[in-house]
Batch of 4 targets.
Target 1
Amino acid sequence: MLSLLSTYEKQSVSSLDFGISNRNAPNILKRDTNQSIESVVEFCKKRALRYTSRSDWRNIESCSYKRASELGILDECCNHMNTPKNKKTKEACITSARKCTTIAQWKKNYSYDYFLAHKKGWAEECTKHIPKTRKNQKWTPELCQQEAIKHKTRSDWRRSSNASYLAASRLGILSTCKHASI
């Protein structure tokens, strides 16, 4: 902090271009005031004390948050704030993935876990229990029939396994495929 202030010690806030054009911002944060950097830093710290999380501060008082960010004092202003206690772990991502039968279902129901696992490189381990679908599978009449038997109706078959349904249609065997009950 002291090294940061020493570089800006004699500069006034008005000489720094922060790009804040919020009319509701307190005067100390506005560009056209001649406040010292020290007073702006102190003001930002006092404003940050009102909040328990960075996101609350950023959402409610974006001007003071932005000014603190531009001055490089966010960590110092936010050191009193609670850090999330429930940080997602690899085990939590694996647990959420085990609740799903497909990767698409995991992505839809637990999108944060899905994206976190990909970002951290855990996706393969999280989804090893999910059977991998074969892309560009060559659908034969026999495979189409096996897939059709798994479904009670033609519309259920089309929703669940559109690729095999379209292949059966393309092969001209759609009417000969048997279902559990039509």
Note: The radius of gyration is 29 Å.
Target 2
Amino acid sequence: MLGTLTTSTVLTIILVYAILNAIKSTALINRKYLPLLGTIIGMIVGLVIGYFNAPTHTVEDIVLGALSGSNSTWLDQVIKKFLGEDLFDDKK
């Protein structure tokens, strides 16, 4: 159970991160709403993934999806800090 839980959580984070980057590149929504949108998309993705893993744990899947969606925003910030211009800026 723990292995499935970990796998589905990491998969949810990656999927929500990819969806948010696609939305961000199209400029369909204001960027200040992306964390909220990530949480909502995470809930939906968590529900879908959880349905195929263990359909009896619906509420847990929605909550874990929401947390994973929120963590995708954190992942975006970590990637920006380590791979962004701040790390390789020679002007410092």
Note: The first helix runs from residue 2 to 26.
Target 3
Amino acid sequence: MSRRLYILGCVTILLVLSMTACSSGNNNKNNNNNSTNNTSTPSSSPTSTPTSSPAISPPHNGELSLVQETEHGLFYSPDATEKVSDMIQTLANSFEANYPRIVGLFKYEPSGKTVVHVYSNKNQFQKMIGRSTEGTYVAEENIIKVYTPSSFSNQKNEDEYTFQVIHEFIHAVIQQINPAIGQVKFLDEGIAYYVSNQLEAELQTRTNFADIPTFEQLSSPEYFDKSGHEAYFFSGTIVRYISNKYGVDALNELIKNPEQIEQILNISLNQLYEQWSEDLRK
């Protein structure tokens, strides 16, 4: 079986599963008006005016307090000490500074304020999430959840955690545009890593691009679990290459129709892989 057919098969299966899940979610919503699944998808043609998702209700969790409200965000935390409040202010400032750029890029804007839960206790956060991570977007709840230390040791440390909030906000936006994109790992994570500017920050110092993964690997959730950061980095470079060569409109079409990657870019997956990997080695 050719690599092209293998990848297309994987993407098709993932999309079928995602569509089934979305259908199930819509049925649940009909039975329960309190459902918080993603519900809004803009039309398939890019427009010049951002579209909107349903408003997000504040969390009803007695352990969390509203620490910071901004023009577009609501930041909650179980810890409202002065140090944590200052830290959340830093996250909120970065969120607001990047908000117009992100919603403008994707031509999509949430109608309600984005809800962010910030935990300064890493053990508490990972126990609550149920896995070893420092940030996630929970699509079913439409909430960003992050761990961030109560104070930053230096500018690099601050950048790491402000990048993280932006990264998760990008997941929130593109998964509201098309929930199925969350099942296509290299696009979902690559877009977040590239658009958050995490990739550009890393490229300032990184020069070693050995062991470039295959598309088969980048399409596998197991590869992300095993390789960690490397999977995010290389996925980001693919998205960067697509954006630079084919343009932002093509990238937005891929978010809406990831199964049509060859038609949108007018190139086979094998050719895309060869061109991207060659460009990366330059």
Note: The domain at 49-177 is CATH 3.40.30 (Glutaredoxin).
Target 4
Amino acid sequence: MKPNKVEVANRLKAIRSKLNLTISEFGLKIGHVPKGTANSWLRGLALPPKEKLIRIAFLADTTTDWILWGDEKSIPMVQTSVIKCPYCSIEQQSNIYDLTKKSRGMLGNFQHICDHCHKDFTVEFEFYPYIKTVSNV
């Protein structure tokens, strides 16, 4: 399931309007994006790449999930992943959406507590819903 480009464009327009930025200023704020490229996102012709989505979400104090999908009910159901504890090696299901929601869907490290041994460890996400690494704290 792919995000609806027109709906994403509407949310991007709302963000740009809330930030009171011209299209050119919007492009500069999210990483020197040419006006034409930003305009194509705002018209629903294309979707921003994940790096730009992360910057937009950060600027707007929202989540990449909200930009792509709108409300929580619209987010695709690919929300769980298996995480292996680095201490006891037990694999467990983790709700990725809840973890990424804590950081507005951005890159980052998240503390996770093993359901089996109850030790904390770090889970690093590259981008929702993919896990990059798991490491000891």
Note: The two ends are 35 Å apart (CA to CA).
